[in-house]
């Protein structure tokens, strides 16, 4: 049967993404007494469907210490637990990971301090282009968003070259240590993932060129919203890289899609929520599914989340591992694509479910 690659539009990395004078949502909520959301923030005229409260919809918990214990039986349990979580959920809670709780709390607090800077100070880090190393803004693509999302953000490229705002004092140093520790965890998790997929231990590390891997730090601020049932922080989507790590303050709002239902994600203190992203689904030829998730808002408290996306190097061409394509029943599902191009294309797609990933699937005729 013949196959053909899908047609996808392209966007230059020099294309502008954000309007320079779009009011940050924090400034908007603090400048006026809002009793309803402005019309351009209305994500849905119907109340957003609630998440499941069924105890059976509990997020898998993976104990990282089992991998590093030196006990073969415990390591085997870790490998099995990780494989099941990746196949059944596409995400898991990571505990006993070795990142100090004090560092995690300090990063949340420093992010809060950044968002508490004046709007004029934050504009200094605005950024306008796709691969600008530092971008501070609101919603998603700012002026090109048909509906504005109830969040402000700081996005920083922290690897292979480290960038960061110089204020507030000490934020950059904290972030450097925090992101370095996460990269070490990513390498270990991807080694275990390679083993789960029947590949060489360092297959993903080598083929994805993790020494030059693209790591993006994102801090998100979701202020209280007067009509949370009609607005959204971030709509349903999957991430672009290999693995995304997420931490937050005590305020929940992350929801994941599982078996056709939305499930609330409670992240205990000193834990990370880790989700599979699009490039790992591509590399596994669809065995592992990138996780669709969203951020909902509330009318009582400000939520701060930290999302650290870990991907291949920008120049890596990502394709299904040849070892996973061995028969008619396991034919190639995704076309090869350079990771940088995938990022560029993602900026030209509406954020929703797996819109871009579906476009990169091999089409049969």
- Name of the CATH class: Mainly Beta
Mean pLDDT: 89
- Rounded to the nearest angstrom, the radius of gyration is 20 Å
Strand order of the largest sheet: 2-3-11-8-13-6-5-4
How many domain units?
A: 1
How many E strands? Answer: 16
Question: In this structure, how is the largest beta sheet organized?
Answer: 8 strands, mixed
Write the layout of secondary structure elements.
Elements: E1 3-4, H1 25-31, E2 61-63, H2 65-68, H3 72-88, E3 91-95, H4 101-115, H5 119-123, E4 134-138, E5 152-159, H6 171-196, H7 203-207, E6 215-222, E7 234-237, E8 243-248, E9 254-258, E10 261-264, E11 272-276, H8 278-283, E12 293-295, E13 303-310, E14 317-318, E15 337-338, H9 339-346, H10 355-359, E16 363-364
Parallel strand pairs: 2-3
Antiparallel strand pairs: 1-16, 3-11, 4-5, 5-6, 6-13, 7-12, 8-11, 8-13, 9-10, 9-12, 14-15
Helix pairs in contact: 3-6, 4-6
